[in-house]
Structure formats: C-alpha cells, structure tokens
Amino acid sequence: MRYLVRLLLLIFYCHGYAQKPSLDQAAYKSWPSLNFKSISNDGEYVSYEIKEGNDNKKSVSINSTTNDWAIKIYTNADAGEPIFTNDSRFFILRVSSDSLCVLNTRNKSIQYIRGIKDVKVSSSTSVIGYTEREHTTLTLLNLKSNSKVRMHSVLDYQFCDNGNMVLIKIKDEEGSNKTSLMLLSLTTGKSQRVWTGDEILTMTWSGDQKRIAIQAKNKQDEFHSFWLFTLGDTAARCITSSAVILRDFQDMEIERIEGLNNEGRFLFLLMRERTVEITKQPSDVSLNVWSYSDEKLQSQQLTEPEIRSYRFVFDIKDRKMLRLEGRNDFIQDFNMNQQAFLITHYNGNVGSGEADWNIAGKKDYYILNLPEGSRRLIKRNTDFKYRISPGGHFAIYYDPDESSYFSYEFENQRLTNITKGLNTKWYSSDKPGKPFGLYNLAGWYSDDKALLIYDEFDIWQLDPSGIRPPRNLTNGYGQKTKTVLRFASESEGQIDTIKPSLLAAFNQNNKHNGFYSMVLNSDRDPERLVMGPFIFDIKSNPYIPDGVNFSVRKSLNNDAFVVRRMSASEFPNLFFTRDFKNFRQLTFLCPQKQYNWYRTELHTFGLEDSIMSKGVLYKPENFDPKKRYPVILTYYERKSDGLNAYLTPEDLSNGCSINIPTYVSSEYLVFVPDIYFQVGEPGESTRKYVVSAAKYLAKLPYVDSARLGIQGCSFGGFETNYLVTHTNLFSAACSASGISNFISGYGSLAGDGSVLQNMYESTFWRMGFTPWEKPEWYINNSPIFKVNQVSTPLLMFHTSVDGVCPFTQAIELFTALRRLGKKAWLLEYNDGNHGVEGNSAKDFAIRMHQFFDHYLKGKPCPRWMLQGIPANLKRIDLGLELDSSGKTPGLGLTRSEY
What we know:
By secondary structure, the protein is mainly beta. It contains 14 helices and 52 strands. The strands form twelve sheets. Strands 45-46-48-47-49-50-51-52 form an eight-stranded mixed β-sheet, with helices on both faces. A four-stranded antiparallel β-sheet has the order 1-2-3-4, with no helix packed on it.
C-alpha cells in the first residue's frame, strides 16, 4: 500500500499536477541557454555550449551523433570558437585565457596545453599553432604525430585556408632590426624565406592559396612597398610602391591591402583621405549653422565619422592604379575575383532616409569593368536596389510600380522585364513605403543561367536573359496549401541543381513548421519530410520573436544535419538527422518543467466589420477553467506566427515589454492579437483589433471581463497611448517608449541625427503623407489631442535618451495627464536607449508587475504609486514596499476623480 501511494505521488508530480512555483528572479538567474557550436565534417560529432544562467558558468559538450557517448568541458573563455579539425579527428577548445583543450575523438583522450597567449588552427592538417604567454616562441603542434616545430622571435603567423602552409613573420637576430617572412610547408616541413625588410604591415593569401601579397614599410621615410610571391618562386618580387600608387592621388593615404584576386593580376587596396589640420583659431562662440541648402543636417554631420575608406585596385600587369570608389560611391556585392563591379553612387552625402523627396538621397548605378576601369551607367536617380549575379553578367532589380523583376545584361546593355505577365504577389506589407529592395532573391544556377526568386509562398525560376519563360519550381504547392516554402540554407549563392533541395516550410493556417524536399528539375510537388506544432526555422518572417530561428547545419562531407526544435512547452533542444524523418535528440534541457509554465492556443476573433483575425492566448500550466482570470493584452503588429515559440523568462522582453512566461506563471492570461493596418490609420486600426479581441475574450467563461489590462512597447507604446485615449474598456495600461504626438514626432531627430520623417510617412507609423498634406490624419492619430478622455490608470516608461521615440513625447503626454488629474506615472530611466537592461530592467519589471497586480488583482499598492519618490531621494528610497493599509491612488492636483 505504501509503495502504491509513493508511485501515485511520483506520477502526480511527473505529469505536472503537483503545485509548481511561479517564475521569479531566482529562475531568471539559473535559466540555461544553449548555443550550437559546430558539427564535424564527417557528421559523427556535434559540439554545443550551455551557459547556466547569469553566473557565467559555461560548458562545452561534444556528443556523438551515432551513440550515447558525450563529454562536457567547462570553460570561461570568450576568445575564439571551438572547432573540429578537417579530418574530424580532433576537437580544439580554448578553456581559459591561457589554456587550450584538445580532444582526440578516436580514442577519447584529452590533453591540455597551458601558458599560451594565442592559438590558431590549420584547417586541414591537424596542426595547431600557439605562442607562449611570456615569450615570442611559436609552437606548431602536429596533433596526429604529436611532433612539434618551434620558432623564436615570431611577430605574427597565418595558416593558409587549405591548411598546408603557414606564413611566419619573424624578427631577425638582435642588432639587425629587420623582419623576415618565412613560408613553412606543413606537409614536407621545409621552410623558405620569402621576404626580408624593415616592417610588414599586411600579408594576405589570394583566394586560391597560390599567391601572397605583402605590404611593407621603410621605417626611416615611411615609404611603402608592395610585393608578390607566387608558390614556386625563390622570393617575393616588388610590384609597386607608395610613390606609384599615390602619384595621381596626392590627397589619399594608404590604409592596407584588402586582397588579391586568384589570377594574381589585381591587388585591391583600401585608401583614405589625408586629414587636413585646421589652422584657424576656434571662436568663443559655439554655434551650429543649419542651412536650407545643406545636403545633410547639422545633427547628422556631428555624429558621422569624419574619415572613410575607399577601394582602389593596382593592375600588376599594366602597372596602373584605378580608383573603384569615389566620394559617395559604394561597391555592392564586392568579389575580388570578378572583373565587373556594381557601383552605387549617391547623388549626395545624405543616405537613403530622405530619398522620397531629397534628390541628394537618390542613387545612380554603374557597372565598372576591369582592367580598363570604364564605367557604364545603368540607371540614374532611382530608389531601386540592384544585385549583381555571381558570374557578373547581369544586374537584377525589382520595380514596385511595375510589380516586376528586371535584369540588365552587361554584354549587350539590354534591360528585360523577366516576370512580365506573372500574376503573383512578390511582397506582402501594409506599410506605405515601396519595396525597392531585392530581398526575395533565393539564389542562382551556375554560370548565371537562371535565378530563383520567392513570391509570397512559392519559388520561381527566372531566366535573366528573358528567353525562357518563368517556371514555378514548387508547382504552386505553397499557394495552394498556404505554406511558405524557402530554401533551408538561404545563402543567396549558387544552387545545387542535381541533389534534392531542402526547403524550410511554414503553414500560415495552423502555424506548423518543418521541412520539405524538392528536386529542382522535376514537375512534382515538394515532398513533405516533417511538419508539426514546432519551430525549427521560419524563413523570411518578421513577425516571430527574435532568436527562435536556427538554420540547418550540415556536415561538409555527407548528409548529416543538426536542427533545433522548440515549442511553447519544449525547450529549444538540438536534434540530429540524416533524412529529416528520423531524429536523434542530442540535448535534453527542460528547465520549464520546474515551474508553472505556459501553454498556447490559437484563437480567431471577429471585428466590428466582420473581418476575422487571429491571436495567441497564453494560459498557465495549472489553468483552472472554473476560475476567472485577469487578462493582459500585448501587441505590436502580427505575432500569431509565433504560436509555437519558446519564450525565455527574464525581467523584460526586448527591454520594455512584459515577459509573457512570467505573467502567465503568476496566473495571468496574456493575449497577443494580430493587427492589420490601414494607411493613415495606425491608431484606429489598433483600436478596432484590440478592442474586438478584448470583447471576444470577455465572453470566455474563464476571463474576468472587469480585469483587462494592456501593455505595449515602442510602436506598441504608441498603440497603448492611443487605446487609453479612445476607449475605457481597460482597467490598467502600461505604455513603454511610445509616441503621443505625431505632429511634433514627425520633425524629431533619431539617435544618429537624421530626421524621423520617413518613419512617419513610409514605415512604422504608416501615414503615407506629410502633415501639411494630411494634417487631420496626424491629429487623429495623436493621443495627445484626446488626452482629456482618458479614464484608465496609465503607467508610462521611457529612457532619458531615446533614439527612436524621443523622451519629449512621454513628457507631452504625462504633463497633460497630470494637468487633467488623471492617474498616471512616468518612470524615467537615465540609462538605456529605447529600452533598459540589468538593474533598471529588474526595477521596471517589479514596478510594472506591482502596477498590474494592484489594478487587475486587487493586491496592495506600492508606496511609489501612492506617494511618489522625491528627487532628493533618488537612488536612496525605491518605494517598492507594499502598503498594508488598503490605500489606493487618490485624487490628482485638480482634486477631481474621473
């Protein structure tokens, strides 16, 4: 009988029926985080790091993917990433600032190397190099043979990418004051002196590892010389000097070598303008002169860097210098092994934030060809964003007015609409700004034969020459099933057309995520591999929480993959698979099982005009349908795609939002509705969706309709300000880092000194017009003009410095509320910018929780809400104690209740 009782108690607890504690600060402190590190090239081993809460305890584990073998190594090092050698035989990990751990994956032996200063690893020869902490001796250790080569007076060293050679910069014997560059073969052990001189500034390999470029300096006269060494030569040869390079560019100075192309003909250099000392005495008057004719605002000029680097190239064959980037020029998709470069030229030094109206913000596009250095104009005064093909034959852009993709063929200077006549939706956005960017490019076939573009759901194959008709590679399957299909790697590089392609898939109806397989040259629908109520990796989706995605990691030599899977109730653990049908779990973290965790439900609610929307309801694990719960609605844009996201408990989310797991754990319900916006009506769109969601929730039998609260941060802070000035439905509201006045906000400055006008016209605030074109729109969306209608207690949060929503916006609203006698508190934090972290985050989280607990749960009021905190007691009296007398916030300065 006693055994049976114990068994029942064990079952009771393991299934979560026993009372579990709520999340608190102790939980935050101990909450683990898991970071994938690497998979061996043979796919036999995986490494990952676990950090145990906020106490900086870290361990790196190496797991076998085929059996239960695993080992854990503790580390406190932040320098360098652990790696497997190319043959997968050794695992190398920096465990402290001066210690290295080497694991032999074959015999599982471990050796430690201590007293090191730095370490570098050859990628293919199982050789590591390290210098000692107190000396300049370089040790090259062959992990396979355990043999060592030592070299003294080493200043620097570099392994080539294929790992067979190492460049070593050595200070010559005492007295000579010279530097030598040695090339050591790791396979033969033979060394060769490549160069000797005063000082080496830069040394770099060509991409094919057959050549070495050297930038040297004469210590006496600062003369620079440039050298080229080709494997097989006896020594490096001088190819040019600073005298030649700067002959036609006297206003420039050499910064460094950027690289060398594989052919060995073009040496790419970074140069910068010489600084000119201002000889005039500064005036006693400190003045900024703002002129209507300035290309860039004074505030921007004061924050921008004074010196910029420019790309140049030295043609070794023809011995001439070419300037690739001029003032306001930027090379796009720079590749040293191409001979055609896409140049973006801004008409002025203003950036793109004012491109809608300022001609200085418009761009010209050119193609620059080597070796002649000629420029060919593609488009003038445009907002389009071009991308150059990997082979350098085409430039691609999207024209939102035509809803089409265009290609420009360099050879014949032909412009072609390559999606003409296709009836598909390339972009989905409710913001008024036009989608000029080329963000939907999925990749290219080899030799620029075709490019792949995403539409809303599917993948299209387009012929950049316009000869072959477009082809829907996914056969319209995505559109038919409302499943977004994207390449799992999403590299935008060249696509393998022979092997089946792995696709990441997300179903917008049920929010399931998983993977499909597709053969590019087949007419069949993609093959479903795995789909479920999880999140593996949801591509191209701005509405899911930060950090939930994890791109598939593949071993180099075979089809061995690591994925990460999470759900609302499942910690994001790592899994191994070879076919995406059978998975082996590698990590088993589940800290949520110790606490009253949350569950998610997808709900559909109707609006006043019969439009339907979705939202996510978060319930506590110990949810009792017979109870009536307070509800907090939090919002931004559309968040239901994050239905299956695992949210980490912490003080605040994103620096100023409620942490949903924490509130649900303390027996609140939290609802996150999707909001769809109309241009010019961000406030009213918010009211329609949030109020409709609240009315829907109020009808649920387990919701206390008299205890509904709202909280929003940033754009959500504006939404909260708008809601409290347009409805009395809610019992408490918290607005964080929000906007209250669109008219004054429109002309405010961002943290970088630029004006915020574009955010109001084209992006977040979705106005579509200027205040002088639609003044009534700006007034209607400004909570400040309806502040007299507020009846909801409002807690406001803002940082003294906010580069997105200026602090003055909070002051405007708070001072109006105070004058009207409304119940309002403003928490101004002197640290942070648009959000806070550390102790300030902890403090705000406590005060916000106290605020909601008082108004939504009837708990005692904290002293800071009843009495405030005098300025002379700042940092001394926090006022967090709860009042035991039953007092509630009383009348305001007007001595009137509302």
